[in-house]
Design a protein that fits this description.
212 residues; globular; Umud Fragment, subunit A; single chain; alpha+beta
Length: 212
Amino acid sequence: MGAKTAEGRKSGGRSSLVELVTIVVVALGLALGIQAFLVKPFRIPSESMVPTLAVGQRVLVDRLSLRFGSPDRGDIVVFKPPKGADDDVCGANHSEFSPCPRPTTQRSDTNFIKRVVATGGDQIEVRSGRVMLKKPGDSQFRLQKEPFIRPSSDCDICNLTQAITIPKGYFFMMGDNRGASDDSRKWGPIPKKWMIGKAFATYWPPKKIGTL
């Protein structure tokens, strides 16, 4: 009787261990699946999105919505920049008074976070760090309302008055800290296929928790 009881306890212990391992494996699988297909955390690596996002702040990135649609002007997006972006390489020769019109053909392995400021068909120029757009159907360039930016007029890419047209299916990305952001002004617009997802909320530090 006692032997059977001890054996039962051992069997119950093994069963509990198997159950625990199964729960951990399933939980890890769900976490990895969520990151791969739904939501991914991202740490802000530089000052390019100040004052909206500070260095070290953490955001949640929606990986699903861009599978079914395209980002809008004003959306904050995590993406892979063109290869050579870290060295400000443009994919085409262009005037020093115009933004880069075309990226290099390959993407980098680095993750960047910037804001969409122009989409395919838009014509864009930059004055004092502020975006001027001539959208399809417009008769003239219009200064965009950007209350979230830190404008600047004294950086080498803050005044690009020779406009370029964004190719269809491409997006022009700029940091909110216009005097301290290496972005599409340097290395050109990017295709949607290089985008990872839209940042929709901040979760760290606690005092910065909120939606974007």
